[in-house]
Amino acid sequence: MDSAERLIVATRVASEAPSPAVAFALWLLLGILSAHRFHLGRPGTAVLQILSNFVLLGFVWRLVDGVQIDRMIQQRRDALRLRLTQEALARTAR
Questions:
Q1: What is the predicted pLDDT for the residue at 35?
Q2: Domain carrying residue 73
Q3: Pairwise CA distance, residues 68 & 85, whole Å
Q4: pLDDT tens digit string along 12-27?
Q5: Which of 22, 63, 56, 67 is nearest to 41 (CA)?
């Protein structure tokens, strides 16, 4: 993959990855509805988190999420970068 393709991948990762500011705002303002998890592409755990809000576990889980949002965003960026790199390599191989 040449430098132009790497630049395209990096640009798309930056533009398509979830925004940390939006994720933190959703966590802060709509955390009880797990909006940040939906934004981060984790609908399954978002539903579980909503259901767990009926017990203390949901509150603790939301606090832990506040610490892990950066890690979750990095995981999404890494997955996106890998997918876009594989697509670029597949186009180059043709």
A1: 96
A2: 3-93
A3: 26
A4: 999 999 999 999 999 9
A5: 22
Chain segment 69-88, per-residue pLDDT in tens = 999 999 999 999 999 999 99
The H-or-E segment that residue 47 falls in is helix 43-52
Residue type, 70: D
How many domains, the chain? 1
pLDDT band at residue 1, thresholds of 50, 70 and 90? confident
CA dist., res. 34 & res. 54, Å (int): 13
- Taking the C-alpha atoms of residue 21 and residue 58, their distance in angstroms, rounded to an integer, is 22
| Inter-residue contact 45 to 83 (CB < 8 Å) | no
Note the pTM of the prediction, 2 decimals: 0.71
Question: What does the alpha-carbon distance between residue 86 and residue 1 come to, in Å, rounded to a whole number?
Answer: 10
